[in-house]
Specification:
This protein has about 190 residues and is mainly alpha-helical. It contains seven helices and two strands, in the order H-H-E-H-H-E-H-H-H. Helix 5 (about 130-145) crosses helix 6 (about 150-175).
């Protein structure tokens, strides 16, 4: 009931939890119950685990570094891709909704599998426009300069800057109103100039 999975240290809530009681997953409840009850329980259990967990073994650290290098090479530093990740995500969402919704048929599932395989192949040619690492490097450089090299003060400045930046991104996102069915927001109502 605390969201623990068979993989030690990994916790889940909602559809990903796959617990066998009515109300613990999305098909058996609504998102509010999912969030307030099962999400909170999983969050507390994950925090308890993290506060008492042993340090990772050298093998796990090496595996994580290898994976980071792979992600850098295949996605973050990759040049020349032509597919947009957002396009593939939308196509995958539509495929899942039409072929693997609540009411399913064998034919629809088979078509969905074929479409997902095609999307998986197209993922190899994805191009990421977002270069967040450059922003992070600039923030770190700014913090070190502003703190005159004092690392603890630089860490404080980074925390403040990231918090402020996150708030700005959230406000700008509200001001854009791109989501289908999103309420209309204006620059004056959000305090953000698009």
């Amino acid at each position: 009931m605390n969201g623990a999975t068979p993989l030690e240290g990994l916790y889940a809530a909602g559809e990903a939890a796959c617990v066998s009681i009515n109300g613990a997953n999305r098909l058996g409840s609504n998102s509010l119950t999912e969030l307030l009850v099962f999400g909170a329980r999983a969050g507390r259990a994950a925090a308890d685990y993290a506060s008492t967990a042993k340090d990772s073994t050298p093998a796990v650290v090496a595996q994580a570094k290898d994976e980071q290098r792979r992600l850098d090479r295949d996605f973050l530093r990759k040049e020349g891709g032509h597919e947009r990740l957002a396009t593939l995500r939308v196509e995958m969402q539509k495929t899942m909704e039409t072929s693997a919704g609540i009411y399913r048929t064998g034919d629809a599932l088979a078509r969905g599998v074929d479409q997902l395989r095609s999307l998986q192949d197209r993922m190899c040619t994805v191009s990421l426009d977002d270069r967040i690492r450059d922003l992070e490097a600039n923030l770190i450089g700014w913090a070190l300069k502003a703190s005159h090299g004092n690392k603890s003060r630089a860490a404080e400045l980074l925390q403040i800057k990231r918090s402020t930046l996150g708030d700005r991104i959230n406000r700008c996102g509200l001001g854009r109103g791109e989501r289908p069915g999103a309420p209309e927001h204006t620059a004056s109502s959000t305090g953000v100039t698009p």
